[in-house]
Design a protein that fits this description.
This is Large ribosomal subunit protein bL19. This protein is located at the 30S-50S ribosomal subunit interface and may play a role in the structure and function of the aminoacyl-tRNA binding site. One of its GO terms (molecular function) is structural constituent of ribosome. The chain is mainly beta. The protein has one domain (about 15-110): SH3 type barrels, CATH 2.30.30. Helix content is about 10%, strand content about 40%. The protein contains 1 helix and 5 strands, in the order H-E-E-E-E-E. A 5-stranded antiparallel sheet has the order 4-3-2-1-5, with no helix packed on it. The protein is globular, with a radius of gyration of 18 Å. The N and C termini lie far apart (about 45 Å).
């Protein structure tokens, strides 16, 4: 019975492991783009607006400013095109869905960074 459980766990554990993040965090998503017969990795850095779905079917929306235009992109967590996700800043927000950022521009659209305590070594 235990062997059967191990085989089942290995079959489902083929996905990549990504760091935990939530709405308000600034992340950089490295994803593959195929152009003709060439393949390259593009970085997309922005604020996580929302996370929807459950378990391995989650999707997250990242919003970035491209010049003066806001651009949002939805990434499925289980997408084979995503190579890596890096959390750049941990945001301090009180909501799970940050749709209000769509109306804000400039300095008003900034999110405070959560202060993280660093443990001192003895």
């Amino acid at each position: 019975m235990e062997d059967l459980l191990k085989v089942a766990e290995e079959a489902f554990a083929t996905g990549k492991e990504f760091p935990k993040f939530k709405a308000g965090d600034t992340i950089t998503v490295a994803y593959k783009i195929v152009e003709g017969n060439k393949e390259r990795v593009q970085l997309y850095r922005g604020v996580v607006i929302k996370i929807t779905g459950h378990q391995n079917k989650k999707r997250f929306t990242v919003r970035k400013m491209s010049g003066t235009v806001g651009v949002e992109r939805i990434f499925p967590i289980d997408s084979p095109a995503i190579e890596s996700i890096v959390v750049n800043k941990v945001g301090k927000v009180r909501r799970a869905k940050l749709y209000y950022l769509r109306k804000l521009t400039g300095k008003k659209a900034r999110i405070k960074e959560k202060r993280v305590a660093i443990a001192k070594e003895a």
